[in-house]
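A.,

Following up on our hallway conversation. C-alpha cells first:
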C-alpha cells in the first residue's frame, strides 16, 4: 500500500476511533450517529477507490463558499441546540463537533484539511473521556493512540512527496525574500 493511501486510511481510522468513543460515552441522537457513520463509510470507500462512490462524490462537488456556509449553519445550529433543544453546552458542542467532522470528511482535499480532521478527532476523544470513567474507554483510547501515531508518522513521511493521486494538494511553501 502506498504511503499516501495509508495516510488517508489511518486518518479515517483515527476519526472513527474518536467517533466510537463518543457513541459509546455520550448519548447522541440517532440521526447524528447515522450521518457521521455514513460520512466515515464514504470517506473509507473513497480511500479504497470504490469507483461507484468516487464517481458520485465527484458529481456532488461543492465550492469552498458552500462549505463555509455549511459550517456557519452548523454554528447557528449549535446555538439553537445549546439554548433551546439540549440546554447543555457540552452536549451541543459535541453535536457541533460531529457536524464539523462530517463536513471535513467530505472535504479532504488539502493537507491542512487532514490537520483539521486530526484536531477535531482529538477534541472528540477528549470529550468522550469526559463522559465516562468505565473500562471500555481504554481500548478505544488505545486504538486512537495507535492510529494517531501511525497517522502523524505517515503525514510527516508524505510531507515532501507530491501526492497528486491522493486528493491531497500541497500548499505553497513560504519563501524567504533575500533583499
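Then the amino acids I'd put at each of the 179 positions:
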Amino acid at each position: 500500500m502506498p504511503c499516501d493511501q495509508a495516510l488517508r486510511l489511518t486518518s479515517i481510522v483515527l476519526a472513527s476511533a474518536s467517533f466510537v468513543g463518543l457513541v459509546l460515552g455520550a448519548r447522541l441522537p440517532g440521526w447524528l450517529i447515522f450521518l457521521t457513520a455514513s460520512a466515515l463509510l464514504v470517506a473509507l470507500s473513497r480511500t479504497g477507490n470504490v469507483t461507484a462512490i468516487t464517481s458520485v462524490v465527484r458529481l456532488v462537488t461543492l465550492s469552498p463558499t458552500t462549505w463555509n456556509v455549511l459550517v456557519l449553519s452548523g454554528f447557528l445550529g449549535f446555538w439553537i441546540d445549546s439554548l433551546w433543544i439540549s440546554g447543555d453546552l457540552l452536549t451541543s458542542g459535541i453535536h457541533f463537533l460531529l457536524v464539523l467532522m462530517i463536513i471535513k470528511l467530505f472535504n479532504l482535499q488539502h493537507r491542512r484539511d487532514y490537520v483539521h480532521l486530526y484536531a477535531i478527532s482529538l477534541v472528540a476523544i477528549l470529550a468522550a473521556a469526559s463522559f465516562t470513567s468505565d473500562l471500555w474507554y481504554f481500548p478505544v483510547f488505545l486504538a486512537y493512540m495507535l492510529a494517531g501515531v501511525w497517522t502523524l508518522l505517515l503525514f510527516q513521511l508524505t510531507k515532501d512527496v507530491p501526492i497528486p493521486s491522493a486528493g491531497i494538494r500541497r500548499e505553497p511553501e513560504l519563501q524567504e525574500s533575500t533583499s
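Residues 163-169 have pLDDT under 50 and may be disordered. Curious whether your intuition agrees with the design.

B.
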